[in-house]
Amino acid sequence: MSKRPGRPSRPTTPTGQTDGGEERLQRYLARGGLGSRRSCETLILEGRVRVNGRIAAQLGTKVTSGVDKVTCDGKPVTPAPGHLYLMLHKPAGVLTSLSDPRERPVIGDLLPARGLPRLFPVGRLDYHTEGLVLLTNDGALAHGLMHPSFEIEKEYLAKVRGCPTLDDLVRLKAGVISDGERLWATEAEMVRSGAGSAWLKLVVHQGRYHEIRRLCDGIGHPVVRLRRVRIGPLVLGKLAKGCWRRLTPVELAGIRRAVRRGTVPSTSPPQKGTNVRGALPSAAPRVRSGTGQNAIRKPRPVQGGRAPASGGLRNATSRPQRGGSARRQERRTR
């Protein structure tokens, strides 16, 4: 059987280029290590990008690598020949940035000055939060990890003041209102507790500003210390503070698979009245054998072994009259 001829599609390369070498400008900038595609779109709209000396303020602009000259803020942009993926353990008191005008410590200070292409952090951890940060020059993957629609899980260990009750953990999963937003955790567990404090394991995927701290403030147990230990399938493990390493092929395949899948359970907070510990499957309807008019009765054999014409089930109104009742009815009609 021959296939119906259709409109041929233009072949693409893994980097998103077509057979003519053209690609969208924001993708080109992302491959050049300037950030995610969304942040590169902002650079274009702000008029900071030039193609062959002219300002390119249109998101539909296409360029050809090796042919067109692209600059951002006057500096040439050249995509790296390959992508690099690093896991870094950010200490508290360090900015998730490569530079800071106030000269505060940044994660760029933890990387070697030479030997690495220009990388950017995927998402941010606030100044006082420690833990896992992913750095890469793969803008497409960074976009998938950061965009809320892909719902990539982030797991945190939070040391909070006081000892939350079981009801407090239920509230974290049911959702709390903070600054007009409803925030919730897909998982909330007590890890351990001590004198005046406790450690909680919290999993979220919304990516809201200071999400964990606002969640814990909402139940009256503010965060004292916060550490991110997982992004999707990537686990911080025993990587020491201030150290970094390349992702293994298995880790890279796992994070790509998570972005392609792009869905996780519990995509919305439980509604009011829902059992947040897990809904039970609905029970099958029970067959009642009452005496009401609509009650369904078990089939009973009729005298002579003949089944009812209704297929074995009959209701109370279809019960046949007894012989004595039939004779009395006959006398009345005479």
Question: What features would you describe in this structure?
Answer:
- The protein is an alpha+beta fold.
- Among the domains are: 22-76, Roll (Structural Genomics Hypothetical 15.5 Kd Protein In mrcA-pckA Intergenic Region, Chain A); 80-150 and 238-263, Alpha-Beta Plaits; 153-231, Alpha-Beta Plaits (2-Layer Sandwich), CATH 3.30.70.
- It contains seven helices and 17 strands.
- The strands form four sheets. Strands 7, 8, 9, 10, 13, 14, 15, 16 and 17 form a nine-stranded mixed sheet that branches. The protein has a four-stranded antiparallel sheet with strand order 3-2-5-6, with no helix packed on it.
- The radius of gyration is 32 Å and the shape is elongated.
- The protein starts with 21 loop residues before the first strand and ends with a helix.
Summarize the structure.
The chain is of the alpha+beta class.
Gyration radius over CA = 32 Å
Terminal residue distance: 80 Å
CATH class of the domain at 80-150 and 238-263: Alpha Beta
Beta-sheet strand percentage?
15-25%
Judging by the overall fold, what is the CATH architecture of the domain at 80-150 and 238-263?
Answer: 2-Layer Sandwich
Observed structural traits:
Alpha-Beta Plaits; single chain; 334 residues; 19% helix; alpha+beta; Structural Genomics Hypothetical 15.5 Kd Protein In mrcA-pckA Intergenic Region, Chain A
Secondary structure elements and pairings:
Layout: E1 22-24, H1 25-31, H2 37-45, E2 49-51, E3 54-55, E4 62-64, E5 70-72, E6 75-76, E7 85-90, E8 120-122, E9 130-136, H3 139-146, E10 154-161, H4 166-174, E11 176-178, E12 181-183, E13 187-193, E14 197-204, H5 211-218, E15 223-231, E16 234-235, E17 244-246, H6 249-261, H7 323-333
Parallel strand pairs: 9-15
Antiparallel strand pairs: 1-4, 2-3, 2-5, 5-6, 7-9, 7-17, 8-9, 10-14, 10-15, 11-12, 13-14, 15-16
Helix pairs in contact: 1-2
